[in-house]
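Chapter review. Work through the record for Bifunctional protein FolD before attempting the end-of-chapter questions.
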Amino acid sequence: MTTIIDGKQVAASVIEAVKTAARKLEQEAGVKTGLAVVIVGDDPASHAYVSSKSRMAKECGFTSIQHTLPEETTQEELAALVEKLNADETIHGILVQLPLPKHLNSEPIIQSILPEKDVDGLHVVNAGKVATGDLEGGLISCTPAGAMVLVRGIRGDDLSGLNAVVIGRSNLFGKPMAALLLNANATVTSAHSRTKDLAATCRNADILVAAVGRPQMVKADWVKPGATVIDVGINRVPAPEKGEGKSRLVGDVAFDECAKVAGAITPVPGGVGPMTIAMLMANTVIAAYRKAG
Ligand code: GUN
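Structure tokens for Bifunctional protein FolD:
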């Protein structure tokens, strides 16, 4: 029997733990956890993500502040907002939603966030800690952290002797995911668009993680029987069967066929997605605890 990994359920238990921790910090130290989310421009998908982050922060009992800036915001204006949030004692986490409009350079903005407030885990200090195996001292990027919680739920904490393949090598996901798997003692392959015979590489994986942004690219004959398959893709594709102009979300994995081969698999939606927000909340309350000493 294949296990369909219920990311919503795991995320809900993380959120419960965050709520308890936030309440305790407020009662015992008088500190209310604060998250500031910044969005520039009017990309509808980004707005949807940001609203759910802000809403969840409120649900966790945090001070939740959303800065919605117009498309024509300048680099200097955005940098000034980050500086203000860096200096704001009531804010423990800062998230600048990506991608930014094309005229803005995201890298200096992300690197200007104080590492201890970088709840996205994108600052080089935090990325460096993940790369060097210092998983206690920094903040781990939310989607790989969430994906690891799901992997551990199936395979346990020690991945010794297991082959893991991560398809995709982005700074936001693929690189930190590979580092976290390696740190848990898996034998890790980072595969990408230039990998020769990707299918054969994937068939070797006890843990297969797909993060490429190509709808249903991973097919059943890429999956080793019994493998744990983690699908990080979120792709909107036309769904004429639902009516004219309708669309639906699919992952990077052809779910129905791969579910017949895998031992455990995440669905899209309802797999890794809910974990990303849950880990963002967890990072924010961790940042608040550290600040409170
Ligand atoms: N855009 C898509 N995913 C993310 C994320 O995890 N963090 C930020 N800041 N922007 C994103």
